[in-house]
């Protein structure tokens, strides 16, 4: 069986288009209707562009199905195909979800806090499975920015307005992901 072209992202895919494609892909994976090679080809087509990768991760990491808790070999190999895009998005997803656990817990939104904790766990798991040097580099830069209040990721922390408690949670999450 050849993969349907409807499961392959074009270079010009939009963020919204990538979300829709990933939802379709996850449904087929759940129904066991794709071979690992097909999964790899579809995910590889998504993560080769920024919009595709962002749409993939926002869907894959937040989805209620269990697929992202046990990434398939096809997903893992596809993610390794685009380390420069994948690494930054994974580390940022880890950081943002750690900060959102704190935020939602403060506001007694336990369901949202649990959703953010799931994204954090899935992001950490992928970082550990992939073992990409780019993840280590970005994580180290992020930790340096947290420690020195400047550097590569200080603008990222400023843009999202993270407070000290959130930054502590981010540091803890990032350190646990890279060992």
Explain how this protein is built.
The protein is mainly α and 179 residues long. It has nine helices and no strands. The chain has helices at residues 15-30, 36-47, 50-60, 73-80, 83-106, 110-130, 133-148, 154-160, 164-178. Helix 5 (83-106) crosses helix 7. The chain is globular, with a radius of gyration of 16 Å. The model has no long low-confidence stretch (mean pLDDT 96).
Spans of at least 5 consecutive residues with low confidence: none
* End-to-end distance: 41 Å
Percent strand: under 5%
Main sheet properties: none
What gross morphology would you assign?
globular
Residue-averaged pLDDT: 96
Kindly state the percentage of residues in helix.
over 70%
Q: How would you sum up this structure in a few lines?
A:
The protein has 179 residues and is mainly α. The protein has helices at residues 15-30, 36-47, 50-60, 73-80, 83-106, 110-130, 133-148, 154-160, 164-178. The model has no long low-confidence stretch (mean pLDDT 96).
């Amino acid at each position: 069986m050849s993969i349907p072209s409807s499961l392959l992202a074009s270079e010009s895919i939009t963020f919204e288009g990538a979300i829709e494609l990933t939802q379709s892909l996850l449904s087929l994976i759940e129904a066991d209707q794709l071979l690992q090679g097909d999964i790899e080809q579809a995910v590889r087509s998504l993560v080769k562009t920024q919009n595709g990768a962002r749409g993939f991760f926002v869907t894959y990491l937040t989805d209620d199905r269990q697929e992202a808790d046990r990434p398939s070999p096809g997903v893992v190999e596809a993610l390794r195909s685009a380390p420069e895009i994948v690494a930054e998005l994974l580390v940022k997803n880890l950081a943002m979800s750690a900060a959102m656990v704190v935020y939602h817990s403060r506001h007694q939104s336990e369901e949202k806090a649990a959703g953010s904790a799931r994204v954090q766990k899935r992001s950490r798991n992928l970082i550990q499975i992939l073992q990409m040097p780019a993840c280590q580099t970005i994580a180290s830069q992020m930790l340096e920015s947290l420690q020195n209040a400047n550097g590569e990721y200080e603008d990222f922390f400023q843009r999202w307005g993270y407070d000290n408690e959130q930054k502590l949670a981010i540091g803890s999450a990032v350190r646990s992901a890279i060992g």
